[in-house]
Amino acid sequence: MSIESQPSPVASIMPLPVLLRGMGGRNLPSPPTGKVFDKPKEVTSRSKKKDIPEGMWTRCKACGEMITYKELEEVFKVCSKCQYHFTTTALERIRWLTDEGTFEETDANLISVDALKFKGVAAYPEKLKAYQKETGLKDAVLTGFAQIQGHKIGLAVMDFGFLAASMGSVVGERITRIIEKSTKKKLPVIIICTSGGARMYEGMLSLMQMVKTSAALARHAQARLAYITVLTNPTMAGVMASFASLGDVILAEPGAMIGFAGTRVIRETTREELPKGFQSAEFLLERGLVDMIVHRKLMKPTLTHLLEFMG
Ligand SMILES: [Zn+2]
Q1: Residue 247: per-residue pLDDT
Q2: 14 pLDDT exceeds 80?
Q3: What ranges do the domains of the chain cover?
Q4: What spacing in Å lies between the alpha carbon of 59 and ligand 1's midpoint?
């Protein structure tokens, strides 16, 4: 069944990260809910407020350092003082990770429909239209074939700027299709994950994407093909509970928030004090859920080594 004919999206309340968005390298978003970093310290010594045209500078969310957008672009959007990894876009990641000109997008024309017709603060179709305009994307993931240092792969890259990269039926369907196409072509799959979780606007149709993507990955694994996931800040909820955590190798960016439920929900449910930073990539590396933490500037060479090793 094609997505166009499939009823989908729903409505209710979007998670907080949606409100924090920012795209295109201009309005960089705050980190999502939950605190991986302490509150930024005010740094005044290097700020040149009087000479700075508005919009050219931003402040590091972790250490408070002032940094120009231009400078940020040159260093993979990583703070050069504290190495905080800023949120970035799917297009930027594709540019950083793949060989120039090799990315061929697949299933670009799948569009979400409004199955629930829920009318909240804003109706789902209006939300979609606004995010499409803001990001230039049709939905929260780009999929396609590409090459990394000459290695052909199936690739999916999620974009937090589009409705917190929530997983609706288009996200699930695109990811499923690139996995299936890669299985047919006998290619490894890499998914760069980020997500606030299920897309509540699509209700149960959103949750169904968890089993759909996982089933496609099971068939990909049966064909003895490699699957690598990269968890970036944040990778939460339904995405973490399905394809994000199923990689043969699971990489994560430093400081990424990774988990299922939010901190507050867990604390209120368990009524226990939670260890500091328990949803960070570093905490999960120590406990074996994450295999390797990789700085963004080393992601392409690391993926290349893994593809050579696993291919
Ligand atoms: Zn910093």
Answers
A1: 95
A2: no
A3: 1-86, 88-309
A4: 8
